[in-house]
Amino acid sequence: MKDFQYFLKTKVIYGENKSLELAEHIKAYSDRNKAVIVTDKSLVKLGFIAPIEAALQKEGIETKVYSDVKSNPDFQNIDEAAALIKSFGASAVIGIGGGSPLDTAKTASLVAGGDNGAGHYSLMANPFPEKKVLTIAIPTTSGTGAEVTSTTVYSDEKHRKLWAWDTDMLPEIAVLDPVLTAKLPNFLTAATSIDALVHALEAITGQSTNPVIEAVGLHAIRLVAENLPIAIEKNDDMDARGNLLIGSMLAGIAIEHGGTGIAHNIGHALSTVGGLHHGRAVAIALHHTYDWNLDSPRTAVFAKAARALGVTDQFEAETELAKAGAAACKKLIESLPITLEVSQDGLSENSLQDLTAACLAEENQPMRLNNCRYATDEELREFGEKILAFRAVTV
Ligand SMILES: [Zn+2]
Questions:
Q1: Domain 186-389 CATH (choose: 1.20.1300.10, 3.40.50.1820, 2.60.34.10, 1.20.1090.10)
Q2: Which of 178, 146, 175, 168 is nearest to 22 (CA)?
Q3: pLDDT digits (tens, 9 = 90+) for 347-383
Q4: How many angstroms does the Cα of residue 102 sit away from the middle of ligand 1?
Q5: Ligand 1: distance of its center to the CA of 255 in Å?
Q6: How much is the pTM?
Q7: Residue ranges of domains in the chain
């Protein structure tokens, strides 16, 4: 077995309405008692933020809200949030939302410690300044696992996806409150949960896997496969919602150390070229690459993943069990309210060159290299061709 290290930093707090009990953590960190909430407009409009802000103010915490985070956050979002953190003299930054507000809150928490903008630090061009605030992450989707990861993704002016990394990027506290995810539209529940499943699958089968990643990743797959259909059927099933949140958090721990793979390589390219939602993009990419992945030295792990995906049949060979896992995963994806055709996104056969170029872009190479099987340029082009030509069979 290969040598490995493993560490945890983020305190994870789980429970219904725990997002209304943040003041004690902020007071314990510093006596400045000032918090900036980083979120997006839709969450403010849907009434997610007001009760959390009211609960903080009731306990003597002053608050400001930055709610301009875009669905694919950019330099401007991070710089504006960081400017507010500085001018307000905040001691805490609370990210509330899906991956975009959480990534913005995490990155702005660090950027606020210095005098440069987010662009200065992207792709590790320069080290981040010392962190001077407490960061609390509260996911309202069960997908990204951003509450327990030290990497963030955002865009530059040309809509290129960039990333930044720092151990200080890990939030000190993650609050998993299933009440917040109960109102998610089914599309978002489906797309974000499949994103979590892909995180777990790519981490446990990837080049950086280790026994801890495998343990948390397999359980994440199990939790998503078992609970996603229940949450789609009955939106306010708190146990299903809670299990999906825990599943996405565990998948976040898995990618924190294990990285992602080809579905994220292609998924990021689909988002760059067609603007697809991240979860939907990786769901589409996994749907087209799962079988191809099986032809790798990771058969035993894919066989375990099949069991986690709910396959109960007995097979003579591990390869057959692994194949049944791929079929089960594709069936799960097809059963969800996720459109697998990309024609609705303005993509067609004519987009192949752009899509292939985006797959081959520098920022996507870590995912390509970490995958259980290496995709040649030609294979990436062929996947693009299949994705662009795909039409669901209507009965
Ligand atoms: Zn993802």
A1: 1.20.1090.10
A2: 175
A3: 999 999 999 999 999 888 999 999 999 999 999 999 9
A4: 13
A5: 9
A6: 0.94
A7: 11-181, 186-389
